[in-house]
Write a structure and sequence with these properties.
3% of the residues lie in helices and 54% in strands. Strands 24, 25, 26, 27, 28, 29, 30, 31, 32 and 33 form a ten-stranded antiparallel β-sheet that branches.
């Protein structure tokens, strides 16, 4: 289907109850709806937004175009959870309907002030000649809806284009800081910093100086936080060319570890590392609660068609991951609360050759002695997702060449990570796989669209222990 500009920029306010019910029916007919991931009721989900712990619950918003699997007029949808595992649908929280966000309430973050959940997001406005104008807007969650409080940053500072978005706010030493993803006028990406005492007046402090002067044409979704005594800068650079096994997706997401000096705006850091070596991961955002830093990403990528498109919906959010720095490495582990979803144990064996029928949704833990192995998931006839390890090369490869309905093949059908593998922790949902390697040393996230027939798991290699739990 070809979407016109007018169709892409219809507001939810202009959609009848009958039209929404028709869309919901179309979406519900999809065989690939998730069991335990955040997914849109209809239409397209993208960036996680406003991820905050408030009033005893985690609040998650996400970018939402209700009317189909395309990028159009972005609303904010709202879900909450007491445990990061079971999510309650709270409905649409923000409909773009002011001058500032007339063409979309774009991404932003959440924070608590004076006992209320606040957000700062990018308002996207287009003039009659379709010129973009970005402003940063603050809102407050009241009775399930985000009320606009003020336009905090009405204009883009000199030296930068209108690709200026995705503010992430934090409180430090009595002041509020906000990093914003930006593009310089020479079309290179960077991150800038603002400061405010009262949320009304914001001072542009300047650009955060990194060692990556010319690294892509835009940096999206920046996030800055302290972890284990160091600063971490997460961002999603666009325009990075593939380099060996690195940067294979259309756009990347990664991090720098170092020290940020808020006085000089200098960030001294190590190498840029990708957060996820899978096929479908972008625009992550973190929050902190009780000293635990938790990350959630968009399980998808822009400008790619997915097999669910024909059912009128696209994408989901990843499982929440706990971040730590250990021996200089950023580790990502699934939140411990995931164990509450375990039902029956469908697999508990040790051997060199294993073949077993699997449920549609499950968790799998596998430990090996570091030798070669091949693990086939979602196997139906000649279809399977293959995870194989070559110990001599020290490389783990995920191969979805024959894993159900193909898509995005122009970006390749394998992803490889140089790593000495001793364990895998895998979460399989109806159309996704998330694979944590070596207790969070690396992660691969991917979508896969298998047959509806009963599926098998097959393992071949040196002796390994495999334990699997059914999820509903």
């Amino acid at each position: 289907m070809s979407w016109t500009k007018a169709e892409r920029y219809r507001s939810l306010r202009d959609v009848s109850a009958l039209e929404m019910e028709t869309l919901r029916t179309k979406t519900a007919a999809s065989p690939w709806r998730f069991g335990y991931h955040i997914q849109p009721p209809t239409g397209l989900l993208n960036d996680p937004n406003g991820f905050t712990y408030y009033n005893g619950e985690y609040h998650m918003f996400y970018q939402w175009f209700p009317l189909g699997p395309v990028h159009g007029l972005k609303h904010w949808y709202h879900v909450t959870s007491p445990d990061l595992v079971t999510w309650t649908d709270r409905g649409v929280a923000l409909v773009p309907e002011t001058t500032e966000d007339s063409h979309g309430a774009y991404s932003g973050s959440g924070f608590v002030k004076d006992g209320e959940l606040h957000v700062m997001y990018t308002g996207n406005h287009r003039t009659d000649d379709w010129t973009r104008h970005a402003s940063q807007v603050i809102g407050v969650l009241r009775d399930g809806k985000i009320e606009r409080r003020n336009v905090a940053i009405p204009d883009v500072p000199a030296g930068y284009t209108e690709h200026f978005r995705d503010p992430k706010v934090w409180l430090e030493d009595g002041a509020y800081y906000a990093v914003v993803g930006a593009q310089r006028t020479d079309e290179t990406g960077c991150v800038v910093l603002y400061r405010s005492i009262d949320l009304d007046e914001w001072t542009f402090l300047g650009e955060i100086k990194t060692g990556l002067e010319r690294f892509g044409y835009m940096w999206e979704c920046p996030d800055v936080f302290e972890l284990n005594g160091q600063h971490v800068l997460i961002f999603s650079p666009q325009g990075i060319e593939p380099d060996g096994h690195h940067y294979q997706n259309i756009y990347q997401s990664g991090f720098l570890i170092g020290k940020l000096d808020l006085k000089t705006l200098t960030f001294t850091h190590g190498a840029f590392e990708e957060l996820d070596f899978g096929f479908d991961f972008y625009a992550p955002q973190t929050t902190e609660q009780d000293g635990r830093r938790v990350l959630v990403g968009w399980m998808g990528l822009p400008e790619i068609g997915y097999p669910t498109d024909r059912f009128g919906w696209a994408h989901a959010l990843t499982l929440p991951r706990v971040l730590t720095i250990e021996d200089g490495l950023l580790k990502q582990r699934p939140v411990a609360e995931m164990t509450t979803l375990r039902q029956d144990t469908f697999l508990d064996v040790s051997g060199t050759s294993v073949s077993v029928a699997t449920p549609d949704r499950y968790e799998l833990e596998m430990k090996t002695d570091g030798s070669d192995f091949s693990l086939e998931l979602l196997q139906v006839e000649d279809e399977s997702l293959v995870i194989r390890y070559d110990a001599t090369a020290g490389e783990l490869t995920i191969d979805r060449t024959n894993a159900g309905e193909p898509f995005a093949t122009e970006y390749g059908t394998t992803r490889t990570k140089a790593i000495a593998v001793t364990s895998l922790h895998v979460f399989v949902d109806s159309s996704s796989v998330e694979c944590f390697v070596n207790d969070g040393e690396a992660v691969a996230t991917l979508r896969v669209f298998p047959s509806e027939l009963e599926k098998q798991l097959r393992y071949e290699g040196a002796t390994a222990s495999l334990t699997g739990w059914t999820y509903q």
